[in-house]
Amino acid sequence: MTVTVEEAEEIAATAKSAGTICAVNYGYSGYLLVREMRAMIKRGDLSKIRLIRTEFVHGFHADAADADNPRVRWRYDPAQAGISAQFADCGIHALHLASFVSGQDAKELSASFASVLESRTLEDDAWVSIRMDGGALVRLWTSSVAVGRMHGFNIEVYGERGGLRWAQEWPNQLFYTPLNGRTEIIERGSNGQSPEAARATRVTIGHPEGFTTAISNIYLDLAEVICAKKEGRTPSAHAISFPTAVDGLRSIAAIKAAVHSNQSGGQWIDARPPSLR
Amino acid sequence: MKALSWGMIGGGEGSQIGPAHRIATAMDGHFVFKAGALDADPARGRDFAERLGIAPDRAYGDWKEMLTGEKIAPIALILSLSPRPIQPISKSPKPFLKRASRSFAKNL
């Protein structure tokens, strides 16, 4: 959303005082089965969340010959990209999704960054552990040098009563395992899905939906909220899960904390923005 | 529900994520793509906008031009795709937000 926490605070405050909707397109949160994960966790299917493992890895910045490629180079140049590259670019989507599905926000974190390609000032690989305010521990890996990985964005949530697994490259199936039970594959569009997930689909079961449909669910919700405002009515309760400037602000604060943690040898650092401590 | 107009800042030709947003906003018929300041190069931006069906008077050279111009035409959604939406155009996000807020306040 921004490069500095101060700018992000300003955007969140301006949006609030103007009464304007300021959404931030964390588009992966629009996937139907991600919304289903969130609904299942909210209604207590997993009971208390203990651990979340998430990764967002690709291998498209692994070629050392790209040191002079302007489409790649700027991302690792602090003058153009700010204080973080890979964690700010991809890792933050993983952290947002962990927060979105668990309903918990980052409280403190410990980070280890690496510039695997020596030509880079900013990191192309990062491991980050995050303690959430609801007690969950998030283990996050993000990398741009994982040759062979395409858009490897996965999330696994483990609670006291069960586990859930979902992968962005195979977004139409969600794996659910109750404690001591058998693993169930929940297909997108199958019976019994929560209302906030059920509204976020357009084609019948078995026909794949994907990335653009997930983003369109953010716009579907925005259209409902904008029109409700115009028409002077209350928007559908199932259309209000899109991320806002506050989510963006939390992300920028987490990026700053991760940079500081890495610089101080992995020390645990408060990940919250000043206005939300 | 009448379709809402929307405009995009960034997402020029060759953009990684621009097409996904154009497809996604069009999917349910709630939004119609009406305005854009699509490229850091004003001429390229205007040219690409027109090829995407934007009227010439709503194909803008930069975001300031767009937010000023859009005061006279209703627009409900502005999408900023640039990884650094504000700088180096301006030192602070305030001018962008103030203009965007005013534009919204007038049209909502």
Can you tell me about this structure?
- The complex is a heterodimer of chains A (277) and B (108).
- Chain A has 277 residues and is α+β, with helices and mostly antiparallel strands.
- Chain A has eight helices and nine strands.
- Chain A has helices at residues 5-18, 32-42, 70-73, 78-81, 86-102, 195-198, 211-231, 245-263; strands at residues 49-57, 106-114, 125-132, 137-143, 152-159, 162-167, 170-178, 184-187, 269-270.
- Chain A has a nine-stranded mixed sheet.
- Chain A starts with a helix and ends in a 7-residue tail after the last strand.
- The model of chain A has no long low-confidence stretch (mean pLDDT 95).
- Chain B is of the alpha/beta class and 108 residues long.
- Chain B has a single domain (4-107), classed as Rossmann fold (3-Layer(aba) Sandwich), CATH 3.40.50.
- Chain B has four helices and three strands; from the N terminus they run E-H-E-H-H-E-H.
- In chain B, strands 2-1-3 form a three-stranded parallel sheet, with helices on both faces.
- In chain B, helix 3 runs parallel beside helix 4 (94-107).
- The chains are: A alpha+beta (277), B alpha/beta (108).
- At the A-B interface, helix 1 and helix 7 of A face helix 1 and helix 4 of B.
